[in-house]
Design a protein that fits this description.
This protein has a domain of 220 residues: Growth Hormone, Chain: A (Up-down Bundle). It is 79% helix and 3% strand. The protein is mainly alpha-helical. The chain is globular. The N and C termini lie close together (11 Å). It has 16 helices and 2 strands. 34% of the residues are buried.
């Protein structure tokens, strides 16, 4: 985690230096962001594995919700704070604050300790090569059909959500102006905040798989509803509802994986999980605009019965595409929930009992 934060900070520092020298080009941004993101990829597996060892098992759902809560607060406060700073103090001040946050993150970890747990058969490996560890992580998931099904459904829903990231702004702009776009994005952030508070207070039920699929169903229904009619209040309510459901799904999913995977293999399993859960997102980001412009917009323009459902005019094909992705996510969620390996996940894949058997600690 220290290396991930430090590496991400290097990318930000590089951009700050280039801005100061007046030499920043667009390709510099691509390179710096790619560099920082490569380091950030280590953050999720490391953080998830560490949290499992520090948080009591019965509080894992609540802990994941509190992380989501912190993120939603950042989404609400960050843009407004950054915008005010750029106007009043300049871009240099913004870079200084950004780098200070990385330094603070590193300082919270330096001098800490990680509880050391006993080894399991799954965690005992031969020569520790990257390919061997990736194979071990993937093998652990494949051997457990319930976890494999969770991996697949989250990949589908994440892809649908990635379409929303691209398509929501043009959908709103087809109905209103840029000011309203800001309002809709704020409503989304407050929805995320509300869902995080809900899960932080509630902590989820004993049936974490059911909570997870309730959240996934809410996400899919919200995305499907965004584009069904050209009515702005419907868009606002639907996208807010979608974001309320996100922490329900995320925190339940996180708790399931943290409680089912032995500590000493969690880094490998969570790294593989991260790859498969987000693999479809880049494809969605690259294809959503093309699909909207060249497939769905002409479909609405030339299909009277389709236009009778979603409305006709600029942006309605884009709205139809997002609703279609929501329906696909909903169908995938329902089909996955019908699998016995999902409904009996807690029985078929027992919780790891290693948390109660620490054998020392590792000082950083």
């Amino acid at each position: 985690m220290i290396v991930a934060d430090a590496g991400a900070a290097v990318g930000t520092a590089a951009i700050a230096i280039l801005v100061g020298l007046g030499s920043l080009e667009m390709w510099h941004l691509y390179g710096a962001l790619a560099f920082g993101s490569a380091f950030s990829a280590f953050q999720f597996p490391a953080y998830s594995a560490l949290a499992t060892q520090l948080v009591p098992k019965q509080q894992l759902t609540r802990a994941a919700a509190l992380v989501s809560l912190a993120g939603s607060i950042g989404l609400i406060i960050g843009p407004a704070f950054a915008g005010a700073l750029v106007v009043t103090a300049g871009l240099a001040t913004l870079f200084v604050i950004d780098l200070a946050t990385f330094a603070f993150a590193v300082m919270t970890l330096v001098g800490g300790y990680v509880p050391r747990s006993s080894r399991t058969a799954d965690g005992i490996v031969g020569p520790r090569t990257l390919l061997r560890e990736a194979k071990d992580g993937l093998g652990f998931i494949i051997e457990r059909p319930g976890l494999l099904a969770l991996l697949a459904i989250f990949g589908v829903v994440n892809a649908a959500f990635a379409f929303a990231d691209v398509l929501l702004v043009p959908i709103v702009l087809s109905l209103a102006n840029e000011t309203v776009v800001g309002f809709v994005i704020s409503a989304s952030a407050f929805g995320l905040l509300g869902g995080s508070l809900l899960m932080g207070i509630w902590g989820g039920s004993e049936n974490r798989a059911r909570d997870l699929f309730m959240g996934l169903t809410g996400i899919a229904l919200g995305l499907a509803a965004v584009g069904i009619r050209p009515w702005l209040p419907l868009v606002v309510v639907a996208i807010t509802f979608t974001h309320i459901a996100v922490p329900v799904a995320f925190s339940s999913n996180q708790a399931i994986w943290q409680s089912k995977v032995p500590f000493d293999i969690q880094g490998r399993v969570f790294a593989v999980r991260q790859v498969f859960e987000i693999a479809a997102a880049p494809v969605a980001l690259l294809t959503s605009g093309l699909l909207a412009e060249f497939v769905f917009e002409p479909m609405v323009e030339h299909g009277s019965w389709i236009a009778g459902i979603v409305g006709k005019g600029p942006g309605r094909g884009t709205a139809l595409l997002l609703s279609t992705m929501g329906v696909i996510a909903l169908i995938a969620t329902v089909v996955t929930w019908r699998r016995p390996s999902i409904r009996s996940l807690d029985k078929d894949v027992p919780d790891t009992d290693l948390q109660a058997e620490p054998i020392g600690s590792i000082h950083l």
